[in-house]
Amino acid sequence: MLVAVDCIIFGFDGNDIKLLLVQRGLKPEKGKWSLMGGFLQPAESLEQAANRILKQLTGLEGVYMEQMRAFGEPERDPVERTLSIAYFALIDIHQYEKQLSNEYHPEWFHVKKMPDLIFDHKKMVDIAKRQLRYKAALHPILFELLPSRFTIPQLQILYEGIYDTAFDNRNFSRKVLSTELLIKQKEKDKANSKKGAFYYKLDKRKYKANFQAFLNFIPNPDKLLL
Amino acid sequence: MLVAVDCIIFGFDGNDIKLLLVQRGLKPEKGKWSLMGGFLQPAESLEQAANRILKQLTGLEGVYMEQMRAFGEPERDPVERTLSIAYFALIDIHQYEKQLSNEYHPEWFHVKKMPDLIFDHKKMVDIAKRQLRYKAALHPILFELLPSRFTIPQLQILYEGIYDTAFDNRNFSRKVLSTELLIKQKEKDKANSKKGAFYYKLDKRKYKANFQAFLNFIPNPDKLLL
DNA sequence: CCAAAAGTGTTCTTTGTACACCCATGC
DNA sequence: GCATGGGTGTACAAAGAACACTTTTGG
Questions:
Q1: What is the per-residue pLDDT for B226?
Q2: Which of A68, B17, B34, B49 could lock B24 by a disulfide, CB 3.0 to 4.6 Å apart?
Q3: Domain with A218 in it: what CATH number?
Q4: Closest Cα of chain A to B142: distance in Å?
Q5: Are A100 and A204 members of one domain?
């Protein structure tokens, strides 16, 4: 039995949440879009494989990544029985763009405008989106998608994209600040408004300490379809 | 590469939360305690394998079960590289006892008084305990551990065991009832108190409909170590 | 009648939500 | 000086937590 690792890679460009896909190099379905994946090597752990695969594609290391689940339907790969362990990763898209272009010719796709994917990769993506919503409602995970310096309105756009809904900006900023995870900077971002919005940075120490304690971030979480 | 499925099976006897373990039949570590597991067969899915293994051990079908995650450290099984997909199951221990005794000679162990386990099974159990706390804080999953008819004080003992803490019984019963997932029965359980506590049954329809919407069940969830 | 668990009522605190209104700035 | 987002203040509503007190019944 073959064991593969597939990576669902999320990015955020300031407006939209996107997924990084590659065109499959092997038959069958050569040329069709696919998640980035690879086979587990004899001496590596699953985490190591996932990080290796992510680095191959993006050049990035130290990225936020977590195991999602295993997919093992007997017929999921029509050629040979292959178990896939899916990981999802959150990357700062601007970090990635410094790196750009490689042998895989990956492309970013808006999560709502995805092409057809091979095998059961669509199912994996759907589960990853659900998982991301779930996790982000409870933990401050979405900061991983932003550059190290960001404004609260930028953060709000990200949350609104994830939950496909609008939040009250006044209550949103208060709620974010009440977590005390953010450190206010002196400079403002003037690109998006005349008044300008202050930049913030994550308090990394508090972020790590409070990672598990970020419940109730999303208003009316019981109305979300998780 | 070998692919195994291991099951972490939780039960509740009315006072304590327990895990069902077996003595390993194969070398190495023959005779040592272990989670119930087995190898994934060529034609079956992971879910099918997990259900097959659970049925082999307990005789039960239709049990609550979910995939936890994959464990793939290269050296986790010293003999041969084996990937394990861990599932956790919640069973009504009394249902199980009707079935009793089989070739595996399983035994229930209190979650806090576990013997040494083979390989990385202790790690799997620790993660399963954490996962169960996490999930139960958000979803009405613990009903799966109770018989179809139960009292609110019984439910409270279960929650207190899971979270290793005490809840205010007055607020607890109100909170449970406010979910409207329970249907009051005419009879009382007189075994545990003089006044007696009313039995309740789960409203299966509402349970399924609201399974995702049970957030904020545990007071102060941010103080829990998840 | 007393002990002991079940359960109701009430109060206070905290958190969430809605929205009026002021602020800073580029044009 | 006015349009545009950024942000504070405030008021009301909902949920959570603490706890006094009543109920039921076996001994």
A1: 43
A2: B34
A3: 1.10.10.10
A4: 18
A5: no
| Any domain includes B133 | no
Residue B103 identity = E
Which residues are CB-neighbours of A29 under 8 A, at least 6 positions away?
Answer: A118, A119
| Residue finishing a domain among B60, B85, B119 | B119
CB B58 within 8 Å of CB B36: no
CB A211 within 8 A of CB A140: yes
Please name every residue paired with A7 in a beta bridge, in sequence order, or none if there are none. A36, A87
> In whole angstroms, what is the distance from residue B53 CA to residue A148 CA?
47
- Tens of pLDDT, residue by residue, chain B (226 residues): 899 999 999 999 999 999 999 998 777 788 899 999 999 999 999 999 999 999 999 999 999 999 999 999 999 999 999 999 999 999 999 888 766 667 788 999 999 999 999 999 999 999 999 999 989 988 899 999 999 999 999 999 999 999 988 899 999 999 999 989 999 999 999 999 999 999 999 999 999 888 876 555 555 544 444 4
Which residues form the domain of B177? 141-223
A12 and A83, same domain (yes or no): yes
**For position B64, which CATH number holds?**
3.90.79.10
Q: Length of chain A in residues, anyone?
A: 226
* A192 Cβ contacts chain D strand, under 7 Å: yes
A122 and A21 within one domain:
yes
All residues of chain A having their beta carbon less than 8 Å from the beta carbon of residue B43 are 74
Picking from B45, B134, B181 by the largest number of A CB atoms within 10 A of its own CB, the best residue to mutate is B45
Per-residue HEC secondary structure of chain B comes to CEEEEEEEEEEECCCCEEEEEEECCCCCCCCCEECEEEECCCCCCHHHHHHHHHHHHHCCCCCEEEEEEEECCCCCCCCCCEEEEEEEEEECHHHHHCCCCCCCCCEEEECCCCCCECCCHHHHHHHHHHHHHHHHHHCCHHHHHCCCEEEHHHHHHHHHHHHCCCCCHHHHHHHHHHCCCEEEEEEEECCCCCCCEEEEEECHHHHHHCCCCCCCCCCCHHHCCC
Q: Do B45 and A72 touch (CB under 8 A)?
A: yes
Tell me, what's the pLDDT at B104?
83
> What are the distances in angstroms from CA B136 to CA A33, A59, B50, B212, B220?
38, 39, 21, 11, 14
All residues of chain B having their beta carbon less than 8 Å from the beta carbon of residue A223 are 213
On chain B, the residues whose CB falls within 8 A of the CB of A83 are 3, 40, 46, 83
Structural domains in chain A (count): 2
